Amino acid sequence: MGLNLTQKIIKDHLLEGEMISGNEIGIKIDQTLTQDSTGTMAYLQLEAMEIDKVKTKRSVAYIDHNMLQQGFENADDHKYIQTVAHKHGVYFSRPGNGICHQVHLERFGVPGETLLGSDSHTPTGGGIGMLAIGAGGLDVAVAMGGGTYYITMPKVVNVKLTGNLRPFVTAKDIILEVLRIMTVKGGVGKVIEYTGDGVSTLSVPERATITNMGAELGATTSIFQSDEVTHSFLKAQDRDELWKELKADSDAVYDETINIDLNELEPLLAMPHSPDNVEKVANIAGLKVDQVCIGSCTNSSYLDMMKVSKILKGKTVNPNVSLVIAPGSKQVLNMLAQNGALADMIAAGARILESGCGPCIGMGQAPATEAVTLRTFNRNFKGRCGTVSAGAYLLSPETAAVSALAGELTDPMTCTTDIDVTMPDKFYINDNMVVPPAEDGSKVEVVKGPNIKPFPLNEELKDNVEGKALIIVEDNITTDHIMPSNAKLLPFRSNIPHLANYCLTPCDEEFPARAKANGGGMIVGGDNYGQGSSREHAALVPLYLGIKAVLAKSFARIHKANLINSGILPLTFADINDYDTISLNDELKMENVIDQVKSGKIIVHNESKKLDYEMNIELSDKELKMILAGGKINFIKNM
Ligand code: SF4
């Protein structure tokens, strides 16, 4: 039985486990990327592991998210990332060089290699034939340190593309069609592999638009073959020697197949407030538009921008529309400047932003109250654009540009402009905004401004664990309750001591002060404790406050994993009625903890009430080792 492309790359990188879908497997990571929003924490974690030099083939640190410098915090983060990268063998892509995924595709991506990135849109790299996966900062730090990356062996979905796209129907419409079919939950535990004769009609940046937005399916990643199209792209990037042919075997087997005839596709868009809320553009044409944003890691390639400039050339943006354009990389911006396309955009009335995430992550360009904003981006949940009452529509650059001129949502197939653009034989190559790592990192001083604080580390698990019940919370406490995230707190992502002052304050304002006064203790939670985002900070701030265990009726899966990563015991009540017998400040105590944890059952004495609670602790072999070591970083250090 032949292998599909996903299985081939996994097989080449397999370190542990069997390739049976649903099994846990460990794979070797060749490359990593970080962006500034998650990068500070990843590098603090790398430093905490005491690893001198990264062990990957190539690691790159990008600055693209928080480029507004209204206070010292972001600038401090950038300086820290630059110096820590220089010291530890990591390439540094300076602010202005572009969005991580766009630049990585252009200058670093290698077919057949694995890429782990601390950003959910890392699967963009699948456009060049990489197995590119988004992960938390700690996983990326571990991979930089040479550690294995563990995933569940995915199922593989074959999306078979046949035929050709018609003019003004785009790669964005392909991924919107896949989202319509599969929905935002349909990709969980799966890799989406694109096959069929339609694949060879798509350029690498078009393929990358599709793999980028595969993240919205919830998929592990998405991938295209590496073929002559990939070869030409790498040649034009002066990286010819890195090409190799990669494709599925002719008798490869897939878990599911979806067929899409490109000839039949029409321009599509995702309506507010979900990327799978897909509709034909023609069906809602005429909607008045206030803002149009073109760019982001989904749609900011040279080809995208050239098509936009051709549509805008010699015309004027509608007076009721604010059109902003952010080319995805310095390479793209430079080429547009050199060939006059940038001048055409400016002449038409577009506002040009620097090459970065900008409005996609809500850094500037918040639309007006109740505005209609058309975006070539990948996400449109309520409030992401910065204005909760605005409605964000996700669509192709072509639809965006045509609508910016008309002042209303317009089917681009009504446009008569010739927008035929061919891939250049040679891209403009100038890597002077990429700082290579130092030859000798030992001489590099890492600069830590006042906002960069060391990463909190736990200790080896002790045989006696005791402390007060410092807070008792209800069911369904989210990671947002545990570690609130808002514009005021965002700049402090590398300052755990500061963030700790806000831990669980939506439930009890006194909790951080109580935890500090008692030198730590325990949290008592209800059902589904820690639901919501995968935010690592929701485990790191309790660790900083000295939390040794969380006793809950049940845990949300990812938060439980994050607690284990931090060496905090996640205990569940064998009898949930015990929860009701605990009061604030009760003295809780555990003995023979190491043996009990190994057995999966642990007795917690409530000294204040003279009661014993039977608690469960469910850990895999690997998680048990982490808990005993006092968290993942200590575990890696011990290796
Ligand atoms: Fe994330 Fe948007 Fe930046 Fe892409 S452009 S990396 S989606 S913030």
Automatic annotation (TrEMBL):
Residues 8-407 form the Aconitase/3-isopropylmalate dehydratase large subunit alpha/beta/alpha domain. The keyword Iron applies. Coiled coil: none annotated. Signal peptide: none annotated. Keywords: Iron, Iron-sulfur, Metal-binding. Residues 522-574 form the Aconitase A/isopropylmalate dehydratase small subunit swivel domain. GO terms for biological process: tricarboxylic acid cycle. GO terms for cellular component: cytosol. It holds the Pfam family Aconitase. GO terms for molecular function: 4 iron, 4 sulfur cluster binding; aconitate hydratase activity; metal ion binding. SUPFAM superfamilies: Aconitase iron-sulfur domain, LeuD/IlvD-like. Its cofactor is [4Fe-4S] cluster. Monomer. NCBIfam families: acon_putative (TIGR01342), PRK00402.1 (NF001614), PRK07229.1 (NF005558). Belongs to the aconitase/IPM isomerase family. This is Aconitate hydratase. It comes from Vallitalea longa. The lineage of its organism: Bacteria, Bacillati, Bacillota, Clostridia, Lachnospirales.
